[in-house]
């Protein structure tokens, strides 16, 4: 039985069922963490995607996992939310050149950090909290980190759940141009309302088309903005994805039972990305979710949480 460091936590200001703490890393950075549920129950670690703060894991999704007998941990990746921000390089990277080399399967020069470094961050969080083993759910970029985590640190990962992610294999279908432009575009200004409106436009373009809840998007966007507005972090994380490249070498090392879920309506990462991940990992299962885009709508939380829970408990 794991003995989680409960003395490290204090009540979260965002939810009434989770507690928060800060994990000081060996590299001098800090990672902001929340946990909820019974710490004596099996642990599920949630890893969020590109530019997403831990609060972008819906409370209802976290509660569904907790209510089905799990201790749930979510955290801000480096450069996002309340976690440490890395220093920007004085030399501006040529993003177009890096993206072209990425699509051609060519190795890019090193940048500030890679997805491997983000997987190292993740295992440091587990060590700090005395979590000896867990199940992992990674969304989008978080799913890429989860693949590396499971392959590089198999002793910490019991089972894997992957949500609308990729392994960056060559020749996978690119994101829709409109979705790509919107996702990596900037708000009209750094003012709160302009950022919120931009986030609503993104959600309408990449989210589940029949389940767009503008009021909910506005609420989460407001909290995220007031916690930390750090657009430079999105670029830093994107560079980490591009410069890490294909994850096939990691997928070949994964032996844990893996479930890959992908949205039928995902226009940012088309469903073939998820199918390719499942094919690359020995014994992985794939399930296409009808009506889902590149998000976790409230209406699909029961289905998604039940699929992951069944996988983790089976």
UniProtKB/TrEMBL annotation:
<dbReference type="GO" id="GO:0004806">
    <property type="term" value="F:triacylglycerol lipase activity"/>
</dbReference>
<dbReference type="InterPro" id="IPR050471">
    <property type="entry name" value="AB_hydrolase"/>
</dbReference>
<dbReference type="GO" id="GO:0046503">
    <property type="term" value="P:glycerolipid catabolic process"/>
</dbReference>
<feature type="domain" description="AB hydrolase-1">
    <location>
        <begin position="43"/>
        <end position="296"/>
    </location>
</feature>
<dbReference type="Pfam" id="PF00561">
    <property type="entry name" value="Abhydrolase_1"/>
</dbReference>
<protein>
    <recommendedName>
        <fullName>AB hydrolase-1 domain-containing protein</fullName>
    </recommendedName>
</protein>
<dbReference type="InterPro" id="IPR029058">
    <property type="entry name" value="AB_hydrolase_fold"/>
</dbReference>
<dbReference type="InterPro" id="IPR000073">
    <property type="entry name" value="AB_hydrolase_1"/>
</dbReference>
């Amino acid at each position: 039985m794991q003995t989680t460091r409960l003395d490290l936590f204090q009540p979260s200001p965002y939810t009434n069922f989770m507690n928060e703490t800060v994990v000081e890393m060996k590299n001098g950075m800090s990672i902001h963490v929340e946990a909820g549920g019974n710490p004596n129950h099996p642990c599920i670690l949630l890893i969020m995607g590109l530019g997403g703060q831990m609060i972008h894991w819906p409370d209802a999704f976290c509660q569904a996992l907790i209510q089905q007998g799990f201790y749930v941990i979510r955290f801000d990746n480096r450069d996002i939310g309340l976690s440490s921000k890395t220093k920007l390089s004085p030399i501006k990277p040529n993003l177009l050149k890096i993206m072209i080399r990425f699509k051609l399967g060519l190795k890019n020069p090193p940048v500030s950090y890679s997805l491997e470094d983000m997987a190292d961050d993740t295992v440091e969080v587990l060590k700090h909290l005395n979590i000896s083993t867990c199940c992992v759910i990674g969304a989008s970029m978080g799913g890429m980190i989860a693949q590396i985590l499971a392959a590089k640190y198999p002793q910490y990962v019991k089972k894997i759940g992957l949500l609308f992610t990729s392994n960056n294999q060559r020749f996978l279908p690119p994101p829709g141009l409109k979705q790509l432009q919107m996702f990596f575009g900037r708000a009209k200004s750094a003012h709160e309302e302009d950022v919120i409106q931009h986030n609503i436009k993104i959600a309408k373009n990449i989210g589940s088309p029949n389940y767009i809840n503008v009021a909910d998007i506005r609420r989460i966007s407001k909290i995220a903005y007031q916690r930390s507005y750090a657009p430079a972090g999105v670029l830093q994380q994107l560079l980490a994805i591009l410069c890490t490249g294909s994850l096939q070498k990691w997928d070949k090392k994964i032996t844990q039972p893996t479930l890959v879920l992908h949205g039928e309506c995902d226009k940012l990462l088309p469903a073939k990305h998820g199918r390719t991940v499942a094919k690359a990992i020995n014994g992985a299962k794939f399930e296409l979710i009808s009506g889902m885009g590149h998000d976790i709508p409230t209406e699909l939380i029961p289905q998604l949480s039940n699929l992951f829970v069944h996988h983790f408990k089976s």
